[in-house]
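Protocol check, entry for the methods section draft. Step 1: assemble the input record (protein sequence plus ligand SMILES). Step 2: submit for complex structure prediction. Step 3: store the structure tokens unaltered in the notebook. Ligand used here: flavin mononucleotide. Step 1 record:
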Amino acid sequence: MYLFQPFTVKNMTIRNRVVMPPMCMYSADTHGIANDFHFTHYTSRAVGQAGLIIMEATGVQSCGRISDHCLGLWNDEQAEAITPIVHACREYGTKMAIQLNHAGRKCEAQEKTILAPSAIPFEDGSPMPKEMTKGDIKDVIDAFRSAAKRAADIGFDALEIHGAHGYLISEFLSPLINHRSDEYGGSTENRSRILIEVLKAVHEVWPKEKPVLLRVSAEDYEKDGMHADEMAKIVNLVKPYIDILDVSTGGVVSTPPTAIYPGYQVKIAEKLKEATGLPTITVGLIVEAHQAEEILGEDRADFVALGRELLRDPYWVLHTARNLDVQYPFPEQYERAFEARK
Ligand SMILES: Cc1cc2nc3c(=O)[nH]c(=O)nc-3n(C[C@H](O)[C@H](O)[C@H](O)COP(=O)(O)O)c2cc1C
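Step 3, stored output:
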């Protein structure tokens, strides 16, 4: 089965095509420090044989957190708390990535200053963000670089830059809310500038042999917003700096997807994969093995990410292998329970 075929990008061989996408657990203390919950949560999915786990959106600055209880990676104490989780997960053969994020105008943490490309609040009642100065932009780029260095020191296999869902980078990318008149606004190239600068900064400290992922929102569900064609152009601009594309949609404004059905984002991922030639992750209501197999077999994406389904069932990969009689190297301790049916 395609689902159980390994896939190699740079020096990272992922043992199957199942990705746990980043999912905020809002369970850190107010200093952004991971705890026992995070250890249990991530190691469960590693024992359950997820191929790649992308750790939840982790703030590169205090005001880059989505909430007061998001993980952070702007100091050594935060890095120390994450380290044993990563090492334990890797023991079970899972590859580990972390999603580095700046929440931009969608920061709901108790912060004095909320940053955004333009001074436009997310919705009625949201705080008024500060239009970022060039100095603020430089600080954010430096923060991504420092967090990437810490992620490298921790021993992550891969790094994902969060360029989706209306957080800071996607705020710059989207024509809907980036109203800047300097070199960070206007044309597609200008709106992509901060992303390119973040990626360049990250590469100064991130090991050359390890992959970098980029998550994007390729559709804003608004006529004048981001669409797959423009996102493909942006991804092609940053292609020298990324190895895997993680395609999502929405979140820049509060407009919901036009329609939600199983695999509703696959066609967008497929479009971007075709336009960029990058190994691609697709996500969104993928829950069934045959559905995943069709996506992979038809080459519509290279990986399937199962978010809520892996929250419901951390052992989805093991259950699927057993139900479909696939020979699979189960964790040694569980071999007798998960042998393929005779
Ligand atoms: C509880 C929860 C937290 C999430 N947090 C993040 C996040 O930290 N970063 C991110 O890019 N997407 C986040 N997402 C979106 C998921 O990664 C995924 O794209 C979405 O759930 C759709 O996939 P699914 O239908 O398989 O759940 C989150 C989703 C859920 C349900």
